[in-house]
Amino acid sequence: MIPVFDLDAPDPEALLQGFGQYGLLYVRGHRIAPDLLSSFYDEYLKVTARPEEEKQTWSGADIWYQRGWTPPNTETAVIAGGQPDFKECYFAAPVQVDPEMRHLYPEVYADNRWPRNSDVFREKYLALGKRLHEVGLALLDSCADALGIGRRVFVTGTSGGPHVTRALKYLPLSAEQVNQDHIVWGEEHTDFNLLTLLPGGRFFDPAGAPCARPDPDAGLYLRTRPSDAHPRGELVYGRPPEGCIVAQVGQQLEILTGGDLLATPHVITAPKQPGYSRTSMAHFIHLHSEERLLPLSKFRSEETLKSYGPPVLAGTYGMKTLVDIGLAPREALEKLGYRNYGHVGPVRD
Ligand SMILES: [Fe+2]
Q1: Tens digits of per-residue pLDDT, 178-207?
Q2: CATH code for residues 4-331
Q3: Ligand 1 centre from 224 Cα, in Å?
Q4: CA 331–ligand 1 middle distance (angstroms)
């Protein structure tokens, strides 16, 4: 059973069991009004209903789609063999990022991009993103406390980082696309950041009205840690109890804890009937780009250093991942070595 963690009555055991065994927790006491989330999804659907030519003006291949609109079939999961996800997304940064990092990582620290005449969309988006961020920081403090490594260790490492909130719309499948294995809403993957907050998705029927999930297989599924009974882990439906949201461990938190906490593999399964769509939101808390990714001293052993070494900066790690999932061009990796050999030329000639 995935534990419930109440922010008003923190239980370290529940937290460690959730993040350690399942890679996720259901969180109560988050103070996110369901009405705010529903009304945000209404605004997001209005934005995604605007003409394609207009949406392209808020899109940004130049900034690796880290702000504004991401067209359908752009992102691919690393283990999906290059199959893109059937979704369109929006990215915005809800909290202050470190301005100095713009020179080093211009794409992931870019300014927000907003559609024209979208004040309500922007306000609700930022309000939700900010609150999800606060919830995440509170969880990270409790998490560090429970691990006995100093309460502020994780939160200090996130200050000014490239945190981003994503709105997603999983697109309706046609009758021909239903049951075709290669059409996926979100292929199985783990998130590459520190901690992800998911306030809960909504399904819409073919007429566009909110509805219950159209079949028992549709929606968010999470894979638990392998055990003797389930050597490949178990796929668990990620629907939290009423009034709770989901918090999910990302790769950065797994690395820092030498695997004591588990980055949760998760998948978004499309319905088996045509015409249904789904909206969701995710807030990604990242380490600051200058933080080093290697198990913290308490979690170092020969085994964990082999598993998670060699160390890299969180910023470098992010660039590599964005290339892997098809959002950044492969040439971005060329920046990672010395690039100024040409400086020597004029001196020699
Ligand atoms: Fe994810």
Answers
A1: 877 666 777 788 999 999 999 999 999 999
A2: 2.60.120.330
A3: 15
A4: 25
